[in-house]
Design goal:
There is one protein chain. By secondary structure, this protein is an alpha/beta fold. The chain has 2 domains: 344 residues, Alpha-Beta Barrel (TIM Barrel), CATH 3.20.20.70; 105 residues, CBS-domain (Roll). The chain has 19 helices and 21 strands. Strand 10 and strand 11 form a beta hairpin. The mean pLDDT is 93. Bound molecules: xanthosine-5'-monophosphate (XMP). The site of xanthosine-5'-monophosphate has 25 residues, from strand 17.
Length: 480
């Protein structure tokens, strides 16, 4: 006889309270790991979906201590460009500042400043730094033929730094000199970058941001297993991506293992998350093939119909618990991907053994998600769509075909495992994250812990009935 196991999801359980060990939520740490070598201040990852994460979302997530994963339903060049935008966003050193040649005239300066949307240019002769010209130098000048050399602040009067200038040193220079820009030069006087005071202020506004060693925001990007996967992976790595996510609905497969191994073999220091899986065996095989993080979830997502269409999947809380038993053995972090509806689910997913949660639905309605606002009966919505929905599949076909013609055979081939839908507009990602993280801090405290890892040891799940679930929500009142 086939044994049928009982598997549970978030709504089937609650965390029984343990004696609190902190007096205030501020004493709780939400620090965690995304992969073996990437740490985050908050355990939240935005989903690699085309209605959730492109550069704007990834920037907002990283500034607040999480991370965004750029979706892969873009051309290779466009996906790499999204990554580049994130890496440029809060850069403390502009590695390739806009320059103008010392032989040019005021007219050229004005034109270039307008084109690039900047209020200053570095003046060079070949690679050599010759000066800086800013709005202040040109504002009252009418004669467009005046040479740049006559208007700029020349090299001799500039405060410069070496290519290894630290944030601390830059701050000191800004404080003592009241200048706004420091060009970086090497020992031969060649331009090697530019530091702007306003970029440092931006960095200080987000003290918990997820940053790389150079101070740039962290970002991940998804790849598939189609034959061009190496070209895509290389382009993303060249653009500066910090982590690749092998994004396949059924990630426990020979093909995913081959792709993972080839990437790890070719690019020595790359961090790779692989998935999605929902079982201990799947987790073990991907970890043994070299995964630095595992994405868990087959069918729990708000827009998923995989379980209905295919009959396959595992309720998400049990899936996370099963995978965690193996992942903790190897000290490889798990991402609980999909099905998170409220902050309590975040706590449950992490208490069950995940290190981060991936969110689609909860972030799709924010200002930072791609896509337009839709008005329906006076209320504001944004679109969310499953990446295996009919619309997403047809979009991919159009992109690959390079035109909008699709024949009947192609239409028949599409078996959607996702839907297209609307979610209520929610304002900024910052507001959504502060509510989620606030709820998580309370949850950790109720568990008698002061950190996510602490919850792994202390979590005390109880299974509830439908009456328990009904009792958990507000009830027998008319909400105002
Ligand atoms: P939430 O619940 O946060 O889930 O919206 C987001 C996750 O759902 C997965 N996803 C899909 N699963 N068919 C599926 O079965 C789809 O079309 C689909 N699109 C996204 C994905 O793991 C995502 O992170």
């Amino acid at each position: 006889m086939v044994e049928i196991k009982l598997k549970l999801s978030y709504d089937d359980v609650l965390l029984s309270p343990n004696k609190a060990i902190v007096n205030s939520r501020s004493q709780i740490s939400t620090k965690t790991k995304l992969t073996k070598n990437i740490a985050l201040h908050i355990p939240v990852v935005s989903a690699n979906m085309d209605s959730v994460t492109e550069a704007e979302m990834a920037i907002a997530m990283a500034r607040r201590g999480g991370i965004g994963i750029i979706h892969r339903f873009l051309s290779v060049e466009d996906e790499a460009e999204e990554v580049r935008q994130v890496k440029r966003a809060d850069n403390f050193v502009i590695e390739e500042p806009y320059t103008i040649s010392v032989e040019k005239k005021l007219g050229d300066v004005k034109e270039l400043m307008q084109l690039r949307g900047v209020n200053g240019l570095v003046v060079v002769e070949g690679e050599k730094l010759r000066g800086i010209i800013t709005n202040r130098d040109v504002i009252f000048q009418i004669d467009l033929d005046v040479p740049v050399a006559e208007l700029m602040t020349p090299f001799e009067r500039l405060h410069t730094g070496g290519p290894d200038l630290t944030i601390g040193q830059a701050k000191e220079i800004f404080k003592t000199t009241k200048i706004e820009k420091i060009p970086l030069v090497d020992s031969e006087g060649n331009l090697r970058g530019l530091v702007c005071q306003k970029d440092i202020s931006k960095i200080e506004k987000y003290p918990y941001a997820s940053r790389d060693k150079k101070g740039r925001l962290l970002v991940g990007a998804a790849i598939g297993t189609k034959p061009d996967f190496m070209i895509r992976a290389k382009a993303l790595l060249d653009a500066g991506v910090d982590v690749l996510v092998i994004d396949v609905a059924h990630g426990h497969s020979t093909r995913v293992i081959e792709v993972l191994q080839e990437i790890k073999r070719t690019f020595k220091h790359v961090e790779v998350i692989a998935g999605n899986v929902a079982t201990a065996e799947g987790t073990r095989e991907l970890i043994e093939a070299g995964a630095d993080g595992i994405k868990v979830g087959v069918g729990p997502g708000s827009i998923c119909t995989t379980r209905i269409v295919s009959g396959s999947g595992v309720p998400q809380l049990s899936a996370v618990m099963d995978c965690a038993k193996v992942a903790h053995e190897y000290e490889i972090p798990l991402i609980a991907d999909g099905g998170i509806k409220v902050s309590g689910d975040v706590t449950k997913a992490l208490a069950a053994g995940a290190s981060t949660v991936m969110l689609g639905n909860l972030l799709a309605g924010t200002d930072e998600s791609p896509g337009l606002l839709v008005l329906r009966n006076g209320d504001k919505y944004k679109i969310i769509r499953g990446m295996a929905s009919f619309g997403a599949a047809m979009g991919r076909k159009y992109r690959l075909n390079g035109n909008s013609k699709t024949d009947d055979k192609e239409l028949e081939d599409v078996v959607p495992e996702g839907v297209e839908a609307m979610v209520r507009y929610k304002g900024s990602v910052g507001d959504v994250l502060s509510q989620l993280v606030g709820g998580l801090r309370s949850g950790i405290s109720y568990c008698g812990a002061d950190s996510i890892n602490g919850m792994w040891a202390n979590a005390n799940f109880v299974q509830i009935t439908n009456s328990g679930l009904r009792e958990s929500k507000s009830h027998d009142v008319n909400l105002v």
